[in-house]
Design a protein that fits this description.
single chain; 221 residues; mainly alpha; two-stranded parallel sheet; 9 helices
């Protein structure tokens, strides 16, 4: 730790799903159910100092990052954006795009028409489809796009998560029929973000869990 002005050094305690052991947010992303996942994140972000990094280890799905950021997390690490390119998968706002599918062979759009990354500016889906089925270069191009997508997502989250407007826009894009997953709706309720305009009504999560189980800043500790 020779560059203290450029680096952060902090401990990680991996408590998994045990609320008595969790401090920093490690030991997740191992296949646990999402309802348990978000509650542990909520508990940890409430307990961690606000002026220290609140770091969720191994989390990389865009939806999980949006939820965790709303609950107060600051940073993440994950191989998902690059590993998924081995299967020809690109991240776009509505869903994941499978470039290996036969339908992509005749699709002349960029990966994401709204994305200004180098790949979307210069290549179309047809070309990348040909690459990902035959050449490692396809994965490299998709990695460039996916990393740009994640960086763009992170910037938007940092600038607008407090007001909640980005969260609603993100969820409306991902769930255009309003069928937002129940665990997401419950997590947003605890985060204090109103997504009623894009989320079907579910029973309040506060009816299902006590404040001690959730442990967020919205409840007495």
């Amino acid at each position: 730790h020779r560059r203290p002005h450029d680096q952060n050094l902090f401990g990680i305690v991996q408590g998994g799903l045990d609320p008595k052991l969790s401090y920093a947010i490690g030991g997740l992303a191992g296949g646990e159910n999402k309802d348990s996942f978000w509650r542990v994140v909520a508990q940890c972000t409430a307990a961690l100092p606000e002026d220290k990094p609140r770091y969720v280890m191994g989390v990389g799905y865009p939806l999980d990052i949006v939820v965790c950021s709303a609950l107060g997390a600051d940073m993440y690490d994950c191989v998902y954006p690059t590993r998924t390119t081995y299967f020809g998968t690109a991240l776009i706002p509505e869903r994941v795009l499978k470039l290996k599918h036969r339908a992509m062979a005749d699709d002349t759009q960029p990966i994401d028409p709204t994305c200004p990354c180098m790949v979307c500016k210069n290549y179309i889906r047809t070309y990348i489809h040909c690459l990902v089925t035959k050449d490692a270069m396809g994965s490299q191009l998709l990695s460039c796009h996916n990393l740009y997508y994640m960086m763009r997502l992170s910037r938007n989250l940092h600038t607008s998560i407090v007001e909640g407007r980005f969260v609603c826009d993100f969820l409306q894009t991902m769930f255009p029929k309003g069928d937002v997953l129940e665990w997401v709706c419950n997590a947003m309720e605890v985060a204090g973000i109103d997504i009623s305009s894009c989320c079907a009504p579910f029973p309040s999560c506060q009816e299902n869990y006590s404040s001690d189980e959730i442990g967020t800043n919205r409840f007495d500790k």
